[in-house]
UniProtKB/TrEMBL annotation, chain B:
Alphabetical GO biological process terms: phospholipid translocation
This protein's record includes keyword Glycoprotein: yes
Transmembrane segments: 36-63, 313-337
Sections of the chain in a coiled coil: none
Descriptive protein name: Cell cycle control protein
Subcellular location(s) per record: Membrane
GO cellular component terms, A-Z: endoplasmic reticulum; Golgi apparatus; plasma membrane
Sequence similarity: Belongs to the CDC50/LEM3 family.
Sorted UniProt keywords: Glycoprotein, Membrane, Transmembrane, Transmembrane helix
UniProt organism field: Dryobates pubescens (Downy woodpecker)
PANTHER family reported in the protein's UniProt record: CELL CYCLE CONTROL PROTEIN 50, CELL CYCLE CONTROL PROTEIN 50C
């Protein structure tokens, strides 16, 4: 292929250009890191289109940037060999072998034939090189495929867009993309066919998120009606140099008249994303190829080093020491042996010069010879084998059917290949809450508006029924992995649809609702069975049954009541105002994208825009509005009454709608119908034309039809508006608003249309969106209200920040401020109550601004927006200026349900001796409640809450808690001793009582300070669970790092969102949950699972297996090498320490490479010490692998000792048998070698815990291979072998009965101690694993009894554990709420920790 | 959701990512788990014990049936050995004799060995110094791997080359049966003593019309008294590289104390049933110096049984192993009986 050559040339050119041009961009390396470090053109890059008037400058600047060709391969055909070798020789083991090879070329010390020494090295290098090469080749093929994709690029010559390959795209090119095309490079959006200059992109290719993101045409270009003409583009773009931050893009466009327009990430189309719902877009490329953000982010698989590997390295040092000792023995021995002779004996060959070498020098030479001879002592094949075994283990983990989650059609992904065995040693788990422990399916549960709470009881009932169906469904899904679900669902949908139509008129609200649910559910599952459905749109989230009371109140709203806002004295009307604003805020204050199923989103919008009647209506309304704003006190205009509905009529019309909505058969009120008929919007409702007509519906009465539209949940075939939100909370709120018929119809960057039941469509002019960020913990939208025409800010956010932003002295007068104060207090109370129930709370507030105020703010904001440097801080400041003096409207409580199996998993992991910390950004009450719900905290735990403002106070409190715990421990110990239970080991997980620690974010800051770290860790070690709330991503990672470094513990971090990424990266093992919040966590993780509960099997079963398998294999390798090499060593005592080997070199070398390599690898991949079910049943077994670290030093030394013994037997039994006889050297080596083979292979069989046919085949195969090889070699090698050639030796030996007798005896005697040890272990002192293994043979009932007994044995003394199993009450939240309320009421001056009164319960239940 | 699928080509069902539910992938392969319960443990110990004991007894019996006479003649021929210490006397003949008496005759095939002690034939560099190619009759003129005994200073290659060949054992031992004051030479077989493959495959004389011309242009090794083509002038097929004494010497011994087969007693006349009882004399032409390396030389007469030579080690080892296994079996039985009442998982 010519490709590599072209590559070389290309890189050469780049190199030259880089030298010539001012030290610019691409160091031609493909390695991403290099790009980050190189600093092209200082801080900024200038992008100029390659067009006439810029041509020269373009040549100068743009050529310096990379083009869009990517190369992710490490090697080319030319450099593969040197580069791969270079990389491989970074390994010490390989260097060692290289050293040996070189050493063997020194004539004085050579031990083997020169070629033979190279064999192991060559074999190892070849295996690894082939592996690397294959990996690289697949990458190369991918690259080629990607590089050759075609896109439309503007050509200067032909003055139109022509097809070009991706690799030929350059910075400064104009690219035109149509719908569903993939973006080839990072480009700034200059034109979109969308009238509002919006382009939707799907970032699934980048981060896996399937919801659509909006991108906007650069300001100033969106106004152009026609497509942008690249010829006329006369601006230059300046932006920051390439970086890997996906969420940041800064720069500006400088027009020819020096006007500058700011660029942000909203204007940037990222490579790898897909254009959706937009007919065509045009953009100019700013970053291409390896400089795109997508490529810079693609760091590829990352390698962590496992604990075992570190241990292996240290033990290899022991082997080196042993080797040196043995070689020294050889050297000294040789020296002494030589000095026995006064003159050269004729079996010692003098040097070429005929001189006698002094014994000391000869001994020194012999030292090196011995190193070559005994080289195998350092198990070089171990590294290769470990790599192969890990691949095998990963393969098996990935194929575990239990990790398959049918709903998302996803299974486990192992992204890090070499830390599987660390799964077996986890001591700490750091878990995110939202989306990890919980489903991240947000369900609207409650709300509080204007201090009045609405509990939505019917909604709660609905959710309960879901839960049942859900769990049933999931259970069935778990059992059968097939997609039988689809069939079920298809048929039942059909049935229920018919029923739905028939039942619509039935006057039975409850029944109807349940049917409806059924229907929805089926729809939902139908959706779910496809991969990549729109996020956050499962029926459980979308359907909200409105609260009757609230609905009634809301229905009293009319445009009239809006006209008399603050002045209105009647409480009734201002409450309605609040409610209206509340729902408007819910509907508007978000970034939800609206679409209609089966239709491109943009059409939907166009349709709504194209509705002329509405527009005119809107105009009329606004015209009146402008009049009315000036005289607010005046009564509303009569025309308003006409166009919508009169204030007196509206309640009744609403009631009638309500009745319709509830499907009472009563015909809709006439006036209502008339009113809707008059309203063109309703008859020409935008959805209707696009409805896939599902029979029957339209034959219903007109009134019924309308009601269908108005209340989406009542009419199955109505096209649902699809809401695609960035966060599930947003979606939940919008759906909630819709339930109250405040329907978000469409959203464009300029306006939002809301369909208010009482008023019809209202179009809000969208002035600004201040997006959510974790620092402000809130988001705001600034709109111009269509009715009042004032600028309104709607803000929603966490109550902790929102409460401080409320206006303190409103201008509305004493009366109002009192009311507001009252509302604030009551809302706070409701918020606390919500949090105690484990609901996520949000505060909704608004603020009305005068035009002047707004204009002033806008000025500042523009300044902030257009600055390149320090923009974030300025924007933040600007946002802060806007979000003050808010009026509290109300609060919402959203439920985030626990994932399936979370409590069980946590309990099992806890019993396995793993400490679990929950790190969440949520508020304390929510976090604590979730912790109780998922059994992270038990009702019997004492809970200490750490909440202090200063560091000193924090230190004081912590020491106090410690004291308290210690006191309790001693108090608890005496009764337990009295009972005769002796705690075997006062381990940290089993103190006399259990404590839980709750810390909030602000305190966390103090705690993480250097001076307090130690006491904090001491404290946490005493606590069985730690909950950190309001933690920032940075704090999360700091905590993980702290535990990891200070406690030397193995840590695992699990999370699902972008905020967990840093934590996942820091931990020894990062686990990402591929949930609803995109793939960022998964990208950063080592293992990606779909459900938290999978962690249980991953750790308890696969962790245990991988760990024990690999440990045993590593030990076996040490054993094998030591045992085999020692045979040679012993022989040195009989050959004057001259470095003779009694085995043919080929057989010697191949022994390790060929004859004994496969069985241990199989052993490492397949051995199963305990079956999976038992490991799951008895999580305690996990502690075995956990505590031993990798393996105990004693295990290593016992193994070596056994190896020494076996080698002694293997050598000396044949030695004594043949001593003094006429046996020749190779005939003597042959039985030794054969016996060693049998011993080494059968030793493995003894160590094997489960033998399958694969093991048997491999063992037999190895033996067979050995005999075939030696026999074959014995017949062909009469000359070309090394001087003592093994010709016919094996044949001759196999005709000799003594050979068999020797082999038999040797093998038996060698294996006897190991066998005896195993026998004694299995009988007298059965280890836990053996006992557990025995479970297998029991009947289920016996097993249950034994399991109970087992648990008693194991933890009988540790009463905490016992309680955890015996009392599995799930009533925690109810009880807790009382305790927590006292805690929250406490003034801050009180001791900030609160010992839970339930601690006293502990003394009672111990039976 | 639906909006998304509508963009995809319809009917393109993505294959499920669900892993195969096979026994191998789910790690549910039927496994044989050796369970160590009392029955298997005890039976394994007792059975192996019994087996080892019986094999051991057989071996000991057969080793005891071997008749062997070993005579150290390096002491008896001390004069000769002194003569040989000075290498300038290399061409002086020196013979000595060693007498022994057989109380009973040795029946069957009798093998005559010479034994060397303290001779490190297995020294690595000594052992490597040979040319198998030369011994195969190829490249006789350019010996490889033979340093330092490859060529003389004048470039004449040695045949055979190498240290092993150079140091070949060159004592001549003859056995006389002294009956009725007359010494009858015991007929000895020179051939058929080495491996068939060595004689027929590994060793070949260079092709030529006669041996001396085949080895023309080569010289004998420095320690040799005769050139290689006159090692056995009586038997053409036992001459040159094919000489069996040479072949046997070239098969490197495993230990510094070793014996090599030298002759077999030809069973004719009064020796048809082996060696009869009576007085015998070894007549030794003493050429091989051993005092330099404090070595000793033996001559051994022995019979051979199926289990090899007279070494009883293997038999004893079997017996010891067998008894150890049996003993362990008893100990385990005792432990088991003692702990029977205690509930251990092992008993189930």
């Amino acid at each position: 292929m010519a490709d590599p050559i072209r590559w070389a040339r290309y890189r050469w050119q780049r190199l030259i250009s880089a030298e010539g041009g001012e030290g610019s961009s691409s160091s031609s390396n493909s390695n991403n890191k290099c790009y980050q470090s190189s600093k092209p053109l200082g801080k900024h890059r200038i992008v100029i289109p390659c067009l006439g008037h810029f041509k020269e400058e373009y040549e100068k600047v743009s050529k310096l940037y990379m083009n869009n060709k990517i190369r992710t391969t490490k090697y080319t055909l030319l450099n593969f060999l040197p580069r791969n070798l270079f990389e491989q020789f970074h390994r010490v083991a390989n260097l060692y072998f290289l050293f040996l090879v070189v050493l063997n070329w020194v004539p004085l010390v050579e031990a083997f034939q020169k070629e033979i020494t190279m064999l192991p090295l060559v074999a190892v290098l070849t295996i690894i090189a082939v592996k690397d090469g294959l990996e690289d080749y697949s990458r190369y093929k991918m690259d080629k495929q990607i590089n050759n994709l075609v896109t439309k690029v503007y050509s200067r010559k032909e003055k139109k867009y022509i097809d070009k390959r991706w690799k030929n795209v350059n910075v400064g090119d104009f690219i035109r993309l149509s719908r569903n095309e993939i973006i080839p490079a990072d480009m700034v959006l200059l034109y979109s066919t969308d009238l509002d200059g919006i382009c939707y992109i799907e970032t699934a290719g980048l981060d896996g998120e399937t919801n659509l993101k909006q991108r906007q045409v650069v300001r100033g270009y969106s106004e152009q009606a026609s497509e942008i003409d690249p010829e006329n583009f006369s601006s230059r773009i300046e932006c920051e140099s390439p970086n890997d931050d996906l969420n940041r893009f800064r720069g500006f466009v400088e027009h020819s008249n020096k006007d500058r327009v700011g660029l942000s990430k909203e204007n940037l189309l990222l490579r790898g994303c897909t254009v959706r719902n937009t007919e065509a877009v045009v953009g100019i490329v700013v970053y291409a190829g390896h400089e795109t953000k997508a490529m810079l982010n693609n760091s590829g698989p990352h390698y962590k080093r496992s604990k075992l590997e570190r241990k292996v390295n240290s033990d290899i040092l022991w082997c080196v020491l042993l080797l040196i000792l043995m070689c020294l023995t050889g050297a000294i021995g040789h020296g002494m042996w030589l000095s026995r002779y006064s003159e050269i004996p004729f079996f010692n060959i003098p040097e070429p010069g005929g001189k006698l070498i002094p014994p000391a020098l000869a001994g020194f030479n012999m030292f090196w010879t011995m190193i070559i001879l005994l080289q195998v002592l350092i198990p070089v094949s171990l590294y290769v084998s470990i790599e192969i075994v890990k691949l095998g283990q990963i393969y098996l983990i990935q194929n575990d059917i239990d990790f398959y989650h049918e709903k998302t059609d996803s299974t486990i992904q192992c992204r890090a290949l070499n830390i599987a065995e660390d799964l077996g040693q986890i001591q700490y788990i750091f878990s995110d809450k939202t989306g990890t422990l919980t489903e991240n399916k947000m369900v609207f549960r409650r709300c509080s508006i204007a201090g009045q709470e609405y509990c939505h009881e019917e909604n709660a009932k609905r959710l309960e029924s879901y839960q049942e169906v859900d769990s049933e469904d999931e259970a069935s899904a778990d059992h059968q992995c097939g997609s039988s679900n689809d069939h079920q669902c298809g048929s039942s949908t059909h049935v229920s649809k018919c029923q739905g139509h028939n039942c619509t008129p039935v006057n039975e609200p409850l029944k109807r609702k349940s049917l409806n649910q059924l229907l929805r559910r089926e729809d939902g599952t139908g959706d779910d069975s496809h991969p990549g459905h729109v996020a956050f749109s499962s029926p459980i989230e979308t359907d909200v049954v409105p609260d009757t009371q609230l609905l009634e109140k809301f229905s009293q709203f009319s445009s009239d009541s809006y006209q008399q806002p603050e002045e209105a004295s009647s409480k009734f009307s201002w409450e309605t105002m609040y409610i209206t604003d509340f729902f408007l805020a819910l509907a508007i204050c978000n970034t939800v994208v609206v679409s209609v199923p089966n239709q491109p989103r943009q059409k939907m919008r166009l349709a709504s825009l194209g509705r002329m009647p509405i527009k005119s209506l809107e105009e009329i309304r606004q015209m009146f509005q402008r009049l009315s704003v000036r005289r607010q006190s005046s009564s509303p205009l009569p025309s308003m009454k006409e166009s919508s509905s009169s204030s007196s009529e509206s309640p009744t019309s609403f009631v009638s709608k309500l009745s319709l909505f509830r499907a009472k058969l009563a015909s809709p009120a006439l006036d209502g119908t008339a009113q809707r008929a008059a309203d063109p919007h309703h008859t020409d409702s935008p959805e209707h034309p696009q409805v896939p007509q599902a029979g029957g519906v339209w034959t219903l009465a007109a009134g019924g039809e309308h009601s269908c539209v108005a209340s989406p949940q009542a009419s199955p075939p109505t096209p649902r508006l699809c809401y695609e939100a960035e966060s599930p909370d947003e979606a939940a709120l919008v759906h909630a608003a819709r339930a109250y018929k405040c329907v978000l119809q469409s959203r464009t960057p300029e306006q939002v249309t809301v369909d208010l039941a009482g008023l019809g469509s209202l179009t809000f002019q969208l002035l600004h969106i201040l997006p959510f960020d974790s620092l402000r913990k809130r988001m705001s939208v600034v709109v111009r209200h269509p009715l009042s025409n004032s600028v309104v800010v709607y803000t929603k956010g966490a109550d902790s920040v929102m409460m401080d932003l409320l206006r303190t002295a409103p201008e509305g007068g004493v009366n109002h401020s009192e009311i507001e104060q009252k509302i604030k207090e009551r809302t706070q109370k409701h918020l606390d109550a919500y949090a105690r129930r484990g609901l996520r709370t949000l505060c909704i507030a608004k603020k009305v601004m005068s035009d002047a105020e707004y204009a002033e703010w806008l000025n500042h904001h523009f300044l902030a927006e257009t600055s390149i440097d320090n923009r974030e801080a300025l924007l933040l400041e600007s946002a802060m200026r806007l979000e003050t003096g808010l009026t509290l409207l109300g609060a919402t409580g959203i439920e985030d349900r626990l994932q399936e199996g979370v409590p069980d998993t946590i309990q099992a992991l806890r019993r396995a001796g793993v400490k679990i910390w929950m790190l969440t950004g949520d508020k304390r009450e929510t976090a604590v409640n979730i912790a109780f719900a998922c059994k992270l905290l038990e009702p019997d735990d004492r809970i200490f809450t750490l909440k202090s403002e200063s560091r000193d106070a924090c230190a004081l409190v912590m020491s106090k808690i410690l004291e308290d715990i210690q006191k309790n421990n001693t108090a608890q110990k005496s009764p337990s001793q009295h009972l005769g239970n002796v705690c075997a080991s006062p381990s940290t997980q089993a103190p006399g009582f259990s404590a839980g620690l709750v810390i909030d974010g602000r305190t966390l800051e103090h705690v993480l300070h250097d001076s307090l770290q130690n006491i904090f860790l001491e404290l946490t070690e005493k606590c069985r669970a730690v909950v950190c709330c309001q933690a920032t991503p940075l704090q999360k990672s700091l905590l993980v790092r702290l535990v990891r470094s200070k406690l030397q513990a193995m840590t695992l971090a699990v999370g699902d969102g972008a905020n967990d990424v840093s934590m996942i990266q820091v931990a020894d093992i990062g686990v990402g949950i591929s949930g609803q919040e995109g793939m960022q966590a998964v990208m950063a993780s080592d293992f990606a699972i779909s459900q938290f509960r999978h962690l249980r099997k991953l750790l308890l079963v696969h962790g245990h297996w991988c760990s024990t398998r690999l440990t045993n294999m590593v030990l076996y390798y040490f054993y094998k090498n030591v045992a085999y090499v020692n045979l040679l060593f012993w022989y040195q005592f009989f050959c004057g320490f001259s470095g003779t080997s009694m085995t043919d070199y080929w057989i010697l070398i191949l022994f390790n490479l060929l004859f004994t390599s496969v069985p241990p690898i199989l052993y490492g991949v397949l051995d199963k010490d305990v079956p999976a079910e038992i490991l799951l049943q008895l999580p305690q077994l996990y502690m075995i692998s956990q505590k031993s670290g990798a393996y105990l030093p004693s295990a290593f030394w016992i193994t070596l000792l056994d190896a020494f013994y076996q080698s002694l037997v293997c050598f000396f039994v044949p030695c004594f048998t043949y001593y003094g006889s006429d046996i020749d050297i190779l005939s003597f080596g042959n039985p030794i070698n054969t016996a060693a083979l049998f011993t080494i292979l059968f030793h493995l069989l003894i160590e094997c815990k489960s033998l399958t046919w694969i093991h048997a085949a491999a063992t037999l195969g190895s033996i067979l291979l050995y005999f075939v090889f030696t026999l074959g070699f014995g017949t062909v090698c009469n000359t070309h072998s090394s001087p003592p050639n093994p010709y016919w030796v094996m044949e001759k030996q196999m005709a000799d009965p003594i050979f068999y007798l020797v082999c038999l005896l040797t093998t038996c005697v060698a294996l006897l101690p190991r066998y005896l040890l195993r026998v004694l272990q299995g009988t007298l002192f059965p280890s836990a694993v053996l006992r557990a293994k025995h479970f297998d043979s029991l009947s289920p009932q016996e097993r249950r009894a034994a399991s109970k007994k087992w648990r008693g044995d194991w933890t009988g003394n540790c009463r905490v554990e016992f309680q955890a199993t015996s009392r599995s009450s799930s009533s925690a939240p109810g009880v807790v709420s009382e305790e927590e309320s006292t805690a929250s009421i406490l003034p801050t001056s009180e001791p900030p920790f609160q010992a839970c009164s339930r601690g006293q319960l502990l003394t009672k239940p111990s039976g | 959701m639906k909006s998304k699928t509508s963009f995809l080509p319809q009917g393109e069902a993505r294959p499920s990512r669900c892993p195969d539910n096979t026994a191998f992938k789910q790690q549910r392969l039927p496994a044989w788990k050796p369970r160590l319960n009392i029955a298997t443990v005890l039976s394994s110990f007792f059975l192996s014990g019994a087996f080892c004991l019986s094999v051991g007894v057989c071996l000991i019996l057969s080793a005891n049936s071997v008749r062997e006479i070993q005579i150290d003649y390096s002491a008896q021929c001390s004069e000769c050995s002194k003569l040989r210490e000075n290498s300038s006397n290399w061409n002086k003949e020196c013979t000595c004799s060693a007498n022994f008496t057989l109380e009973e005759g040795i029946p069957g095939d009798v093998f005559m060995y010479y034994g060397l002690q303290n001779f490190y034939q297995n020294h690595r560099r000594f052992m490597m110094s040979r040319s198998d190619a030369q011994l195969l009759g190829q490249n006789a003129k350019i010996p490889k791997n033979c340093a330092p005994f490859a060529t003389y200073r004048n470039g004449t290659p040695m045949a055979p080359c190498g240290a092993i060949a150079n140091s070949m054992f060159n004592d001549t031992i003859e056995l006389f049966y002294n009956s009725n004051s007359s010494a009858i030479p015991v007929p000895l077989l020179k051939t058929g003593n080495c491996w068939w493959t060595d004689k027929n495959v590994k060793f070949r004389n260079p092709e030529s019309y006669n041996l001396s011309s085949a080895f023309a242009g080569t010289a004998r090794p420095p320690y040799w008294q005769k050139p290689v083509y006159s090692l056995d002038e009586e038997d053409e097929r036992n001459n040159g590289y094919l000489n069996e004494d040479f072949i046997i010497w070239m098969r490197v011994s495993a230990f510094p104390m070793f014996r090599n087969l030298y002759r077999r007693v030809r069973r004719v006349r009064q020796f048809a049933d082996g060696l009869p009882a009576g007085n015998y004399t070894f007549s030794i032409s003493y050429n091989f110096p051993v005092t330099k390396f404090k070595g000793r030389k033996h001559v051994i007469l022995s019979t051979v049984v199926w289990s090899g030579g007279s070494s009883p080690f293997l038999g004893i080892a079997y017996v010891v192993t067998g008894s150890a296994a049996t003993l362990t079996g008893f100990v385990i039985t005792a432990i088991h009986l003692k702990l029977r009442k205690k509930k251990t998982y092992f008993q189930k």
